[in-house]
């Protein structure tokens, strides 16, 4: 066996690469036996992966290497040393077992007056509140075992006190005594159930004592242990490793930002005064002898401000590290492996000054090299803009790299305070370019919670909220996107579109059934628009066809054909959801919850796919672990779903060393401790004031936060974040990139960055001149398509060339001009086509010449019932009611009121009206509107009782033919008229006809008059009956010819005219407001085609077509003035309904 001498070796360096090279060199010079594994301890998956990659790069392979967490390794070492019978696999005083033991003990403790602080919180017996308290207490007791084991020993021995770092004992205050009492109850409970009261502290002391007594381990310990890259460790862990060094070779590779003794450059230094210090004094000056006010003259301000956590750790190490003895005994040539960096960039200068503990030279600022962009700041308006800017900047960095200074995406890390809200933004920005696009950057997002990315877990978590869910249509549709969920129902992905269409059409909105709404406290909404309501309509429609009523169910007639079988899986889904809604609402014991959970998985998920099987295994493992924990804690009480859900699923979010960190592309991750892996480019996003350093307030009852109780090594979220900032600064090798939302997205008001970013900027401004800081800072426009990105000489850049094209003036050449429009001789113009053209000439051009349809984005499924009818919905409902008009004559014995009431009841049963009394009111209002219209229509039909044959009309203008049928004709003596029943209001508020509602009537009159047919038009609307006369044949020919000519021009290019805006213009109203809108109304120019061609009224009004002077005013007068004049003329007779003023 190759000899490996025991000892405690601590290596210090400001560069992780130097530590890696030193450790690997040592391992090569002092190898273990073949197949004997090397044991590495790391504190993060990032360090673990980086280390494995380094080992593989050196030897071509990384094998026989065990990588573990320090805590897990030491617990295993305790068992190896003391015996497995004395060290359980899971201690009953670990956090999770302790939580459930406290869940059982807390109610029994409330009778003790010492627990008065808890009595009010737990008085109502709420199990969820008790579980929350138990979880917080278990976490605090777990921290006490690591950082305050002497407190727990004192409490176990009835000494109700707190020991400070200097050994001074302070009596517990009356409101604090309950914690000591609770700890005593825990120990008593463990003895009562014949379990060893062996917490981490007791086992740790036994382990240390056994090693000091030179006892032989029960099973062999590893001969060498390397703790790599740790920047923070509890004193208990360091003590265990130091004791282990009496039998093993223990190597600690410690990243230390400064090569000089720097423990005395901040407050709290008196706690750390020890006789031995590892590092030398800078310029032989003892900083401890200086006042805190003088320290800024002799220390580095960044190190002093950000380095508390590292300071405490290095000083704790000094208690166990004897560098002189170690070097002599193990013949180590170099323990401090600090590298002399000769670089001259700003980033390298800052890192060197931290390493050398150099104070800030305010009187002699260093000039910043021209073009130095090693530290850059970017100010955006939002997180979305930050990621968009980052993408462009990374492309620029990658493009600037060459053979001498190569840069690959895998050498870039992007860290944010919380990756969860950034993840969808990152995907949206970085996924917009496919692999074949030169702007594609590979990336990987890590640190995402499994419950946020795994479709099966997302669906399961939704199901475990079932009793409180409204079961909206969109939510269930999202569940069906989970393949495992869908397969269990027997549905394919291709079936989802049809299922969604049917469900929405059948009126499904939310709620499973009436009883489900009762459970939610919404029973007054009854059963309309529930899943049961919709499925009953679908089944009835399939069985009996459309237009059938069965009780209060109106059939939905769209179900049929081979796809009808899809209703079966939907019905099974409803049954299962309704069943589990009831079951999950009931409290249950842990044994019963285990059975329920497994049945939920069986009922809702098919794990035939490999990824789903792995998820199922993880869920089963978490269930088994939780049940074992409850069983060992003797917890058998019934608990609600809320407690079980979190207890089960939170175990799946626990981080592990197996998570991917370095995947080959840009790494996006959360800023977390112990991640000081070196990268060429380190980017920090979201560095906003208030977001970083992150807030993590201690619980009020956490005694570690009490006055005079701070100890070196204590964890603090804010101190962690400060040291993380220092680590990020020191781990960047080429560029440090920092961005934040420095402008308000609404009012452009300035917003401050994180205080740490502000300190770095102040440091640079003081040491390298304020002008230098300005060159490092870029403030970006609000939008990615801003014209500033494309200005000559501007310092903004973007690779989104699509936006450049949008700003480039259109160059009209023969290549991009449309060929002349040649109409199809076999296809004649119709009235409907001319009406569509007049309604929106620009949209007509896009649709019929370019074949482009600007459909609105696909709307989400309707999740909510109707609370009222908007204008379009009301128009549609009235149109449905008016469809009974033919029955007025087919069944003359039935009055219009009866027919309308029946049709309105059918509409209400179909679920398109509001619920309950709101629906009744809406139905009655629709009936009140439709009945007078039908009665007027019946009266008109009686007056015009003789039907006339339809007439074919044909008008020729040059090469164009307008041809259509004049139908709906009736005769009265010698008069001829067409009758039309319209669901619209035909008049404006001033009782004059609305020109935009008369387009079809106008074109029909023009065509009839031009063809010599004298005919009236009679329109019956909601508010009036209009009787219209045509114009003279000569005038009609002129108007129709002008309209056809304009149509021809409009097929060649978008005409600068819009219907409503033009009518406002010719009626001497405000066309700008009509086009652009106002606070009270939407503008016509918001229509996609109009907005694409003429974004505002100025563009519409200033555009000239061709070489003529044909602009907006020309086309408004040519196309719409004759219509407006006709509407205002005596050619239209108005007969207002008596109740017009009452109608909405």
TrEMBL record:
Keywords, alphabetical: ATP-binding, DNA damage, DNA repair, DNA-binding, Exonuclease, Helicase, Hydrolase, Nuclease, Nucleotide-binding
GO terms for biological process, alphabetical: DNA recombination; DNA repair
This protein's GO CC annotations: exodeoxyribonuclease V complex
GO molecular function: ATP binding; DNA binding; exodeoxyribonuclease V activity; helicase activity
EC number in record: 3.1.11.5
UniProt cross-references to SUPFAM superfamilies, sorted A to Z: P-loop containing nucleoside triphosphate hydrolases, Restriction endonuclease-like
Pfam families per the UniProt record, alphabetical: Exonuc_V_gamma (PF04257), RecC_C (PF17946)
Name this polypeptide is given: Putative exodeoxyribonuclease V, gamma subunit recC
Organism: mine drainage metagenome
């Amino acid at each position: 066996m190759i000899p490996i001498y025991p000892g405690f070796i601590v290596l210090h360096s400001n560069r992780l690469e130097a530590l890696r090279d030193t450790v690997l060199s040592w391992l090569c010079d002092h190898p273990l036996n073949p197949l004997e594994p090397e044991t590495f301890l790391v504190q993060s998956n990032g360090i673990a992966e980086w280390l494995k990659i380094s080992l593989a790069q050196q030897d071509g392979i990384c094998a026989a290497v065990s990588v573990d967490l320090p805590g897990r390794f030491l617990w295993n070492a305790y068992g190896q040393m003391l015996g497995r019978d004395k060290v359980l696999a899971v201690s009953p005083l670990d956090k999770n077992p302790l939580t459930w033991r406290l869940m059982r003990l807390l109610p029994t403790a409330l009778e003790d007056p010492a627990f008065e602080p808890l009595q009010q919180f737990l008085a109502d017996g709420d199990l969820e509140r008790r579980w929350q308290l138990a979880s917080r207490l278990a976490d605090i007791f777990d921290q006490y075992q690591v950082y305050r084991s002497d407190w727990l020993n004192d409490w176990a021995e009835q000494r109700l006190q707190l020991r400070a770092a200097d050994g001074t004992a302070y009596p517990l205050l009356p409101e604090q005594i309950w914690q000591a009492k609770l700890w005593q109850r825990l120990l008593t409970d463990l003895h009562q159930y014949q379990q060893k009261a062996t917490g981490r502290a007791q086992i740790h002391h036994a382990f240390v004592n056994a090693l000091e007594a030179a006892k032989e381990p029960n099973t062999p310990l590893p001969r060498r242990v390397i703790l790599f890259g740790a920047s923070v460790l509890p004193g208990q862990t360091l003590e265990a490793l130091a004791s282990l060094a009496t039998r093993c070779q223990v190597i600690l590779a410690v990243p230390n930002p400064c090569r000089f003794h720097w423990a005395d450059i901040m407050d709290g230094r008196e706690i750390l005064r020890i006789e031995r210090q590892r590092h030398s004094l800078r310029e032989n000056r003892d900083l401890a002898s200086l006042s805190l006010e003088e320290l800024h003259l002799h220390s580095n301000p960044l190190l002093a401000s950000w380095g508390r956590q590292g300071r405490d750790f290095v000083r704790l190490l000094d208690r166990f590290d004897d560098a002189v003895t170690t070097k002599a005994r193990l013949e180590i040539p170099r323990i401090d492996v600090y590298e002399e960096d000769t670089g001259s960039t700003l980033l390298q200068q800052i890192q060197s000054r931290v390493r050398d503990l150099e104070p800030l030279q305010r009187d002699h600022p260093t000039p910043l090299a021209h073009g130095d962009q090693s530290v850059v700041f970017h100010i955006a308006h939002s997180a979305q803009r930050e990621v968009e800017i980052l993408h462009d900047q990374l492309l620029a960095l990658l493009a600037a790299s060459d053979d001498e200074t190569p840069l690959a995406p895998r050498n870039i890390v992007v860290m944010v305070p919380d990756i969860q809200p950034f993840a969808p933004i990152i995907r949206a920005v970085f996924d917009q370019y496919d692999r074949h696009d030169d702007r594609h950057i590979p990336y990987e997002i890590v640190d995402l919670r499994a419950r946020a990315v795994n479709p099966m877990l997302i669906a399961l978590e939704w199901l475990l909220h079932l009793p409180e869910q409204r079961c909206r249509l969109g939510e269930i549709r999202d569940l069906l996107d989970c393949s495992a969920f869908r397969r269990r129902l027997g549905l394919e992905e291709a079936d989802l579109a049809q299922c969604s269409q049917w469900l929405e059409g059948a009126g499904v909105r939310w709620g499973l059934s009436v009883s489900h709404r009762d459970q939610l406290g919404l029973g007054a909404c009854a059963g309309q628009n529930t899943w049961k309501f919709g499925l009953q309509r679908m089944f009835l429609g399939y069985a009996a066809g459309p237009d059938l009523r069965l009780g209060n169910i109106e059939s939905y007639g769209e179900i049929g054909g081979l796809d009808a079988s899809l209703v079966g899986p939907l019905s099974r889904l409803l049954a299962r959801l309704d069943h589990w809604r009831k079951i999950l609402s009931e409290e249950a014991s842990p044994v019963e919850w285990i059975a329920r959970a497994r049945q939920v998985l069986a009922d809702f998920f098919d794990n035939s796919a490999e990824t789903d099987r792995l998820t199922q295994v993880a869920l089963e493992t978490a269930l088994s672990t939780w049940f074992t924990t409850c069983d060992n804690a003797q917890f058998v009480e019934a608990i609600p779903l809320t407690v079980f859900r979190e207890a089960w699923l939170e175990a799946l979010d626990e981080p592990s060393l197996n998570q991917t960190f370095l995947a080959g592309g840009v790494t996006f991750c959360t800023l977390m401790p112990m991640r000081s892996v070196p990268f060429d480019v380190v980017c920090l996003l979201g560095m906003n004031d208030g977001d970083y350093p992150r807030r993590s307030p201690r619980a009020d009852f956490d005694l570690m936060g009490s006055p005079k109780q701070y100890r070196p090594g204590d964890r603090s979220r804010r101190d962690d974040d400060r040291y993380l900032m220092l680590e990020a600064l020191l781990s960047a090798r080429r560029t440090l990139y920092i961005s934040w939302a420095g402008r308000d997205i609404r009012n452009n008001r300035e917003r401050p960055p994180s205080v740490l970013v502000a300190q770095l900027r102040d440091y640079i401004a003081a040491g390298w001149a304020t002008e230098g800081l300005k060159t490092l800072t870029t403030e970006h426009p609000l939008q990615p398509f801003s014209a500033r990105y494309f200005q000559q000489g501007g310092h903004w850049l973007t690779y989104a060339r699509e936006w450049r094209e949008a700003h480039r003036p259109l160059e009209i050449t023969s290549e991009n001009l449309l060929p002349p429009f040649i109409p199809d001789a076999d296809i004649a113009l119709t009235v409907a086509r001319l009406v569509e053209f007049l309604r929106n000439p620009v949209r007509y051009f896009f649709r019929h010449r370019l074949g482009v349809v600007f459909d609105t984005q696909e709307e989400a499924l309707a999740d909510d019932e109707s609370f009222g009818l908007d204008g379009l919905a009301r128009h549609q409902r009235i149109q449905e009611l008016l469809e009974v008009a033919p029955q007025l004559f087919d069944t003359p014995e039935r009055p219009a009121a009866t027919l309308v009431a029946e049709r309105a009841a059918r509409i209400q049963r179909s679920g398109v009206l509001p619920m309950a009394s709101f629906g009744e009111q809406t139905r009655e209002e629709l009936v009140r509107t439709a009945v007078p219209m039908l009665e007027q229509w019946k009266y008109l039909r009686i007056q015009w009782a003789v039907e006339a044959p339809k007439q074919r009309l044909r008008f020729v203008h040059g090469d164009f033919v307008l041809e259509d049928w004049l139908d709906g004709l009736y005769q009265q003596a010698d008069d001829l008229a067409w009758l039309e029943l319209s669901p619209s209001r035909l008049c404006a508020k001033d009782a004059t006809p609305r020109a935009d509602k008369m387009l079809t009537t106008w074109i029909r009159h023009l065509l009839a008059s031009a063809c010599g047919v004298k005919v009236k038009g009679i329109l019956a609307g909601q508010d009036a009956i209009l009787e219209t006369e045509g114009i003279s044949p000569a005038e009609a020919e002129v108007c129709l010819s002008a309209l056809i000519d304009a149509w021809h021009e409009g097929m060649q290019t978008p005409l600068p005219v819009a219907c409503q805006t033009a009518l406002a213009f010719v009626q001497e109203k405000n066309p700008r407001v009509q086009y652009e809108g106002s606070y009270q109304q939407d503008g016509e120019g918001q229509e996609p085609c109009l907005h694409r061609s003429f974004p505002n009224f100025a563009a519409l009004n200033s555009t000239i077509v061709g070489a003529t002077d044909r602009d907006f005013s020309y086309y408004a007068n040519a196309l719409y003035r004759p219509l407006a004049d006709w509407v205002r003329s005596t050619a239209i007779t108005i007969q207002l309904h008596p109740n017009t003023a009452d109608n909405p």
